[in-house]
Each structure stands twice: as structure tokens, then as C-alpha cells.
Design a protein that fits this description.
By secondary structure, this protein is of the alpha/beta class. 45% of the residues lie in helices and 13% in strands. A 6-stranded parallel β-sheet has the order 2-1-3-4-5-6, with helices on both faces. Helix 3 (66-75) links the parallel strand 3 and strand 4 (79-83). Helix 2 (41-53) packs across helix 3, helix 7 crosses helix 10 and helix 10 (221-247) packs parallel to helix 14.
């Protein structure tokens, strides 16, 4: 099959290209960086011309690009997209209706939500990992000492816009949302925030903008829900990392910036291909603290850890628990206390950690390969 790959700088582009090529497909790639991914006449014209001049069986991209979907519909060519981001930006669904689209999402509940809205071209598909690539990177190489912590976390300490969004709201609205935050912080495996954001609450918050003449801002339930999720994730990541740093050698790899007192030392950003696998392989435990509104799916980070033969310590996620056995393939926690108890236990039992790392690696190698996923897509 002749495939045109579109890429705008995704993490997994190389692995996707490798898999297509291994499977015997002929691929070419278009790279483009969007100043505005919803409106770009130059891009639309050039891609339309290119597809008119060349024959392709499919256009494929990692993540969904609205203007690629629009051009593919105009040119009557099937557009396949497979996202590692979740949840998708709300505005993207305005471009879902094209019959040429096949949209694959790794979070089952998010995919089901779109299908209930009538988008039958949205499907659920878990993500993948290239264990051969990771084995090649890690083979026979001694990592720098900064990659060899006991407990490591690679990821963002989210900045949520929630405080700014609520700055003009009354005390009732602020208190109600604070109550939701506290309740959701204690629950793993179910995300109920969006259900508790009532029309009356949204109307009150939006009226607070109108009172100061800010009519351009209109907060949706989805937008407020995501801001709440980012705030919860920020609080959970900070709290767990601080507690971990009090008791264990804990390494944080994230963007530069000011962190609260008590956080682990920031070891800086990692290069996805060249450095991150060494942290996963050589840390005793690798934390995955999932963004709260990824409601069921297995994040890419979790697969990268297991594919590197790292030990994954993750919050409970429904699909993670379906595929992997707790304390056998992965280590799952359902509260911050349980996370700390499991850290304490497994840091004292190297033999168990090694077994879990190997079991998780074998399972992702067998069931989560890019070739298998692309077969499912095609």
C-alpha cells in the first residue's frame, strides 16, 4: 500500500514509519508546522496540489489534524489518524464528520463518547511501543549517574488555568469546584468531574466575565472540566513527589522553572529517543501519574517504561488493569498512601522488581507492537 505520512513533530512518528516500512508499505512524509492548525490557506492549497499530482492509498498522521482531514475529504482519499493525546481539543470534532476520516483514540471512554454523539468513524485503539528500537538504544551502554535514581518521574507538573478562570467567580462557585477537586483527588479509575459541572454553575461563571465586559470568553463544560483535571493532576503530582522525596531518593525530569519547596531536584528535560529510555531502564521504580481526564486509557509513558524493561508504578487505570496484572506485570496504586507503601516494599525487593520489569516487557512486546496496531488500523 502507498502511504503518505503527515507529521508536525510527534514523538512516535519514527516508530510508525519503521513499522509501515517493515510491513512492506511504501511511505513518503510531509512535514509542516502550523501557525494555526484550523486556518492555513497555503497548507490547504499545497497539500491539495500534492495529492492531485501523486497517487496514495491512504494518508496517515499521529494525532488528528483538522486541515489534513478537510483536504483528504476534498480529494476523496481515506485519512487515518491515531492520537496519543487525550482528551482531544473540543473544537476538533467540527472536522470529524468527513466520511474519509478514520480516527483512532487510545482512551476507550473518550472514543465511546464521540460514538454516542454520532461519530461512528471514531474507534478505540490502544497505543504501542517499539521494543526493538529500545533494546538497540539500551544494549551494552552504561548510563550517566543522573539517570539512575531509585524513584523517577518524567513528565509535566501541570500549570492549570483554573485559578484564572475562577478569579471573577463568586465564593459559591469557587467552593463548589473546590469540593469537586477534593472528591476527585480521592478516586482512581473513574472521572466524574464533567457530570458535576452543571449548566447553572457554567452560567454563573460566564456571567462574571460579562459583568466586566469580557464577552469573547465563553467557558464550556469541557473546557472547565479539563482545567479542573489539570489542577487535580498538578496537586496529585506535587503531593506524591514531595512525599516520595521525603522518604526515598527521588528524581524529577521536567521543564525548567520554579518548583514548590520540598519537590525533588529537577534533573531537567530528557530527549525522548536518546535519554528517556535510560531513566526508565535504570531507575528502580518509574512513576506514572496520569492526567485525570484520561479516563480509561493506557498513556504512552506507561508503555515506554515497560518497553524499556523499566518497573512501572502507576495510578490505577481501567485499561491498564485489563491488560496487565498488578504486582506481576506492573505495580498499581489506588491512593497516595498505597503508592508510598508500595514504593517502600518494592525498593527493598530487587528480585520482585526484576520479575515485574521482565513480565511487563514481555507483555508489551507481544501485544503492543506497532505492526500489530497498524494491521488493526488498516
Amino acid at each position: 500500500m502507498k502511504i503518505l505520512l503527515f507529521d508536525a513533530g510527534s514523538y512516535t512518528y519514527r516508530d510508525v514509519l519503521t513499522a509501515f516500512t517493515k510491513m512492506g508499505h511504501s511511505c513518503r512524509t510531509v512535514f509542516y508546522h502550523f501557525p494555526d492548525r484550523y486556518e492555513d490557506v497555503f497548507f490547504e492549497e499545497r497539500l491539495t496540489e500534492y495529492l492531485a499530482e501523486h497517487t496514495y492509498d491512504r494518508v496517515f498522521s499521529v494525532n488528528f489534524f483538522p486541515l489534513v482531514a478537510k483536504v483528504c475529504d476534498r480529494c476523496h482519499i481515506r485519512y487515518l489518524s491515531w492520537s496519543y493525546d487525550s482528551p482531544l481539543e473540543e473544537r476538533l470534532q467540527d472536522f470529524f464528520q468527513y466520511e474519509t476520516n478514520r480516527i483512532f483514540l487510545f482512551d476507550r471512554l473518550e472514543a465511546e463518547e464521540y460514538r454516542k454523539k454520532g461519530f461512528q468513524n471514531v474507534r478505540h485503539l490502544p497505543l504501542a511501543v517499539d521494543t526493538d528500537r529500545l533494546d538497540g538504544i539500551l544494549a551494552g551502554k552504561n548510563p550517566p549517574q543522573k539517570f539512575c535514581g531509585r524513584v523517577s518521574f518524567v513528565g509535566k507538573i501541570y500549570d492549570s488555568p483554573l485559578d484564572g478562570l475562577l478569579s471573577l467567580a463568586d465564593d459559591y462557585c469557587k467552593g463548589y469546584i473546590q469540593g469537586i477537586l477534593q472528591a476527585q483527588m480521592r478516586v482512581y479509575g473513574a472521572y466524574f468531574v464533567e457530570e458535576l459541572l452543571t449548566d447553572d454553575l457554567l452560567e454563573k461563571i460566564n456571567l462574571s466575565y460579562e459583568k466586566i465586559g469580557q464577552k469573547r470568553v465563553w467557558l464550556t463544560r469541557r473546557g472547565l472540566s479539563h482545567a479542573v483535571a489539570a489542577k487535580i493532576t498538578q496537586q496529585e503530582r506535587r503531593e506524591l513527589l514531595m512525599l516520595s522525596a521525603e522518604r526515598f531518593d527521588t528524581r524529577l525530569y521536567t521543564y525548567a522553572g520554579t518548583l514548590p519547596e520540598g519537590m525533588p531536584k529537577n534533573c531537567g528535560l530528557l530527549k525522548y529517543y536518546e535519554e528517556m529510555p535510560f531513566v526508565f531502564r535504570h531507575s528502580h521504580l518509574n512513576l506514572n501519574i496520569t492526567l485525570k481526564d484520561i479516563r480509561s486509557g493506557i498513556p504512552l509513558r506507561a508503555l515506554d517504561i515497560m518497553g524499556s524493561k523499566g518497573v512501572l508504578l502507576s495510578n490505577y487505570q481501567p485499561e491498564l488493569a485489563e491488560w496487565f496484572q498488578d504486582n506481576v506485570d506492573v505495580i498499581l496504586y489506588g491512593s497516595l498512601k498505597e503508592a508510598l507503601d508500595k514504593m517502600d516494599f518494592y525498593l527493598k525487593h530487587e528480585d520482585l522488581r526484576k520479575k515485574i520489569a521482565l513480565n511487563g516487557y514481555r507483555k508489551v512486546k507481544r501485544y503492543f507492537s506497532y505492526e500489530e496496531r497498524i494491521r488493526q488500523i488498516l
